[in-house]
Amino acid sequence: DSPSKDEYVEGVVCNESDIKENEMKACQLGDAGKVLVVKHNGKISAVGAKCTHYGAPLVNGALGDGKVRCPWHGACFDAVTGDIEDYPGLDSLPCFQVEIKKDGGVHVRAKRDLVKSSRVTKPMVKRNPSDPTTIAIIGGGPAGLVCAEVLRQKECGFTGRIVLICMEPNLPYDRCKVGKALELKIGQIILRKESFYKEHDIEFMKSTEVTGIDTSSKILKLGTGSDLEYTKVFIATGGLARRPNVPGSNLKNVFVLRTVEDSNAIYDLINKEANIVVLGASYR
Ligand SMILES: Cc1cc2nc3c(=O)[nH]c(=O)nc-3n(C[C@H](O)[C@H](O)[C@H](O)COP(=O)(O)OP(=O)(O)OC[C@H]3O[C@@H](n4cnc5c(N)ncnc54)[C@H](O)[C@@H]3O)c2cc1C
Ligand code: FES
Questions:
Q1: Three-state secondary structure readout of 148-205
Q2: What is the ipTM of this complex?
Q3: Distance in Å, CA 263 to ligand 2 centroid
Q4: Residue 58 CA: which ligand 2 atom is closest?
Q5: Tell me: the pLDDT tens digits for 196-215?
């Protein structure tokens, strides 16, 4: 077997008649792993079977209108193309080649590593230093990061300067994790590694507050005392946890849960003797 032959895996994974309209099925493809086979508008497609967020089996999610929603935290993908449609996933699902055989067999051909990883990052363009445009993004949460990323994707093709400015001291991270686990290490929950920003020429200013916007001269005022000229600005400053306006809510050891620092501060105080009161009862 040549290595290039080994790169691909193919085979009949099920029969067309096994899947009804608007149904999905996780089917084994050779020894590479499972692929998600979907029937939408009478056509069968095959995409990655695991969510690109934390790998949930998408077959346990919800399918409707050609979109599949992850059962764990709600990321949404186009079931035909695999494109990411909704946070908290960032990458798309790989989309595999499907051929329906004469006997109705659903034949799938796929790159072995894509079946295993079940994720693809969209192709990106390079920054052109002679492009004078600057897009400033205020807020380094997922919305800010996704904006920067989509601008650099080939489909959008933005080659100017991108500056992402954030008050928090960390690279954009998965805030969803803040409510699901304690003792978090930031390196485990960042959405993209530092090398990603370098590779795609996305400047990231951490621990920097935008304190004002002068829209007539197109200048951002930064908490560091310096200014930043922009061509366009995108505001992605998210929300804040609301502290109830009751006496004592600002006392020591009263926390809101919004950042990784909040989570770690709560964790530091937990011991067998600690009494904990939780105000608010959502699932977060
Ligand atoms: C505990 C918790 C659990 C969650 N779990 C889930 C889940 O399971 N599934 C799900 O889909 N969603 C979940 N969410 C919601 C999800 O995290 C938010 O919808 C998402 O973070 C919103 O992204 P955003 O980029 O709009 O804003 P944010 O994540 O709030 O980011 C905004 C950023 O902008 C910065 N900023 C604000 N003002 C300025 C300024 N003037 N200058 C510079 N920077 C500024 C902020 O410091 C922040 O870093 C959860 C949220 C929390 C708090
Ligand atoms: S694992 Fe799918 S949204 Fe988190």
A1: HHHHHECCCCCCCEEEEECCCCCCCECHHHHCCCCCCCHHHHECCCHHHHHHCCEEEE
A2: 0.97
A3: 20
A4: 2
A5: 999 999 999 999 999 999 99
